[in-house]
Automatic annotation (TrEMBL):
<dbReference type="GO" id="GO:0000175">
    <property type="term" value="F:3'-5'-RNA exonuclease activity"/>
</dbReference>
<dbReference type="GO" id="GO:0000958">
    <property type="term" value="P:mitochondrial mRNA catabolic process"/>
</dbReference>
<dbReference type="GO" id="GO:0003723">
    <property type="term" value="F:RNA binding"/>
</dbReference>
<dbReference type="InterPro" id="IPR003029">
    <property type="entry name" value="S1_domain"/>
</dbReference>
<dbReference type="Pfam" id="PF00013">
    <property type="entry name" value="KH_1"/>
</dbReference>
<dbReference type="InterPro" id="IPR015847">
    <property type="entry name" value="ExoRNase_PH_dom2"/>
</dbReference>
<dbReference type="InterPro" id="IPR020568">
    <property type="entry name" value="Ribosomal_Su5_D2-typ_SF"/>
</dbReference>
<feature type="domain" description="S1 motif">
    <location>
        <begin position="686"/>
        <end position="757"/>
    </location>
</feature>
<dbReference type="InterPro" id="IPR015848">
    <property type="entry name" value="PNPase_PH_RNA-bd_bac/org-type"/>
</dbReference>
<keyword id="KW-0963">Cytoplasm</keyword>
<dbReference type="GO" id="GO:0005739">
    <property type="term" value="C:mitochondrion"/>
</dbReference>
<dbReference type="InterPro" id="IPR036612">
    <property type="entry name" value="KH_dom_type_1_sf"/>
</dbReference>
<dbReference type="InterPro" id="IPR012340">
    <property type="entry name" value="NA-bd_OB-fold"/>
</dbReference>
<keyword id="KW-0808">Transferase</keyword>
<protein>
    <recommendedName>
        <fullName>polyribonucleotide nucleotidyltransferase</fullName>
        <ecNumber>2.7.7.8</ecNumber>
    </recommendedName>
</protein>
<dbReference type="GO" id="GO:0005829">
    <property type="term" value="C:cytosol"/>
</dbReference>
<dbReference type="Pfam" id="PF01138">
    <property type="entry name" value="RNase_PH"/>
</dbReference>
Amino acid sequence: MAAPYRLKLWRGCSFAENTTSLFNEYLLKYITGNLRQVKRFSDSNKRIPQVEVPFSNGKILSLSTGKYARFADGCAVAEVGDTSVMVTTVSKTKPSPSSFIPLVVDYRQKAAAAGRIPTNFLRRELGPTEKEILTSRLIDRSLRPLFPDGYNCETQVMCNLLAVDGVNDPDVISINAASAALTLSDIPWNGPVGAVRVGFCNNEVVINPTRREQSESILNLVVSATRHNLVVMLEAAADNILQQDFLKAIKTGVKECQNIIQAIQQLQKHYGKAKREFEPLLIPSAAVMEAVRSFSEIRLREIFRDHAHDKLSRDMAVSAVRTDVVDKLKHSFDEAVDVNIVTECFNRVSKETFRSLVFEDNIRCDGRSMEELRKISCQVDLYKPLHGSSLFQRGQTQVFCTVALDSPESAMKMDPVTMLTSGLKEKNFFLHYEFPPYATKEVGRIGPVGRRELGHGALAEKGLRPVVSSDFPFTIRLTSEVLESNGSSSMATVCGGSLALMDAGVPISSPAAGVAIGLISRYAHNDTKHMEDYKLLTDILGIEDYMGDMDFKLAGTKKGITALQADIKIPGLPLRVVMEAIQEATDAKSKIIDIMNETLNRTRKQKKENWPISEKVEVPPQKRAKFLGLGGSNLKRLMVETGVQVTQIEDSMFSIFAPNQTAMNEAKELIDQFLITEREPELEFGAIYTAKIAEVRDIGVMVTLYPTMNPALLHNSQLDQRKVNHPSALGLEVGDEIQVKYFGRDPVSGLMRLSRKVLQGPASAVLRNLNDKCSS
């Protein structure tokens, strides 16, 4: 069986031959004392280390190192087609006093890589865009689970787009380049991982689809996996894909990832650095750990078994035990005990106790079974001025959703690089998610939206976008404000958002809901590769997310799946657990939709008074100038006085958007005033009329056929049989009366077609020419 990758070595010979040749040259130069020439010799004969991974659709992923950014701890360049991404990683040698891995991933879209110039005022890259933040989170979630416990050194991963061809999306390429950079570096990391994008076109799975293929796909799935077919990260947006097709896509994606992993391992074998040794910053002694356990374990068990506790009371009870344990240990040891170490020991004991009780009692801390949902209540149409609104309550998670409908001009415009990579120019449906600090009884500063809020909002938007009608005439802004949070607020946003959309009269194909599945796993003898036992938890609490191993969020309708995001905290999840989690989430979301349907089960048909209105009006070409006004003054007046926006669709067709029916009626009255004219006499085609010159121009004269008429142009070419460069050559002045013939109106512009030339016969023209010659 042929290897799924190809290792490119040095020019002209095999790896062993090249090594022997270079060794002999080094030896020779060393004897002669000219080591500087050896370095030049070796550099000039070495090719860039590179591996290639062919995919089933014929594409090739190329991974290389050793050419760029050699001061970094690790650097790798990944290429697919003409899209190239360089990823560097650097980690400090001293640990930081942090209880989590201080990993920062920066993905920036470079306009220069796409041959474009930024369109902002400074014409340079400024702050990160939403697309950049979401891609950074995607890469972060693929890398973070594989860092070893206790490694707290600040680590930065930077993704630098070298070239973007507009066909192959650089986000998944960046995950593979980041995996290679970390694997080749000396940074402790239990990788590598491989990542692929999976599409589903014409009932066939497509690996790493192009932009055009993705536009025809009903699935956009990103799979990150590590060795032994263990899933590290899942992110998906789907057009209501069936469950069996979705499972097939995941299995295929995990299988393709193994080829990338093998290639990176081969690259590491020959060119990787030895991993650095490290020691955790907080290393509790066995005596301190045992003391903390003896003081706290029994009391923690009582708290976690007390089903009467809610989020706040449980947190307060655990905090009281922590404070008491710290105070007691300060006086129990002869030497001073570091408070941070005691706190770390308490957190470990608390987590171990919480997890063990799930296996012992088979009941969760709030008294529910593993598959049981929290109590759900729904309300819609909460406030009259809103186009649509809903309040979704699930346990102690409460979300308030509103829908605002506006004109098509309010659609969200994409930046040039996002347009190039995604093919999306604007969005007429978007969701904004807000998580204020009071939702968790905290005090915090309100400022620009954070990465977490952007990520949760984007996930909820993915869950709802496939059910919203694409030909809806308005721009839809859905806002979600989390009022209370005790786990899974993003999936509550999907539920509340679906109800708010139906309340606003937005046509949706079917109601959508979302739910989060948690995981408590157990490994034998600290073996992270073989899971001994596990428990899946449906509709998890905040504490179950914090203490558990997974936050598996899935959204969809009763028919299929629309979005998925799996945040996995352990170094890989077996496929069987992924399949089981999808099945439990599918069953749970169907139950949630049944509960939602008791409040509102279809789009509201009866219109609200404040709903916006959109109409089309056809303006004849000859009246277009009156309709628009000088410099568009009439349209500006409509906007100021009534709030109505007018957009030209075609030459004679205009779209009128009004925020409500009252504004539309007022706008129609103004439009009638713009277009009103006195009764015009009917002009006969081919008839001859006496025209009065109102203005003399370089290109002709402006004439009127009756007093109330707007002047029409009689062009120089229609003034005389002879060629006329200016009307003054014929002695025409303002106020003169001339005979013209009427040929109707131009069907496109609506302007009158007049001619004086046709009234002058050829004989008169010849006679006039003779008179001119005699006089000369």
